[in-house]
Amino acid sequence: MPRVKRGTTANKRRKNLLKHAKGFMWTRSTKYRQAKEALLHAWSFQFADRRKKKSNFRRLWQIKINAGAKENGISYSQFINRLTKSKIELDRKILADLAQHEPEVFKKIVETAK
Questions:
Q1: What digits encode the pLDDT tens for the residues 25-57?
Q2: What are the residues whose beta carbons fall under 8 Å from the beta carbon of 100, sequence distance 6 or more?
């Protein structure tokens, strides 16, 4: 079998990994072993936080809807309950946007739900 020199392949792999670690502090951006360890943590946090982001936004929407509902004399839970009973199918994202930017429209929705 012919001899295979693996230097270029290994260097390419290391260089690619260091490219991902650009912007990290201290030796984590320049040394392969530290960069690899840092990236393992960074990528796992990145994966988890993409899922956390969804619940964070839902929580934010609930706060905005609650503030808008309180201005119209009804609590968040009663408002959501009455929306489902009156078969108004608007998701929390849209309701939160209406509560923040279109208070008159949101007030009409609250009155319809009551």
A1: 999 999 999 999 999 999 999 999 999 999 999
A2: 64, 68
Residue 108: name the closest of 90, 52, 5, 4 by CA: 90
List the CATH number of the domain containing 67: 1.10.1900.20
Q: State both tokens at 12.
A: 């390419």
Classify burial at 99, counting beta carbons within 10 Å of its beta carbon; exposed 0-12, middle 13-18, buried 19 or more: buried
Question: What range defines the domain where residue 67 resides?
Answer: 7-113
The crossing angle, in degrees rounded to 10, of helices 103-113 and 32-71 is 70
Q: What pTM did the predictor assign?
A: 0.75
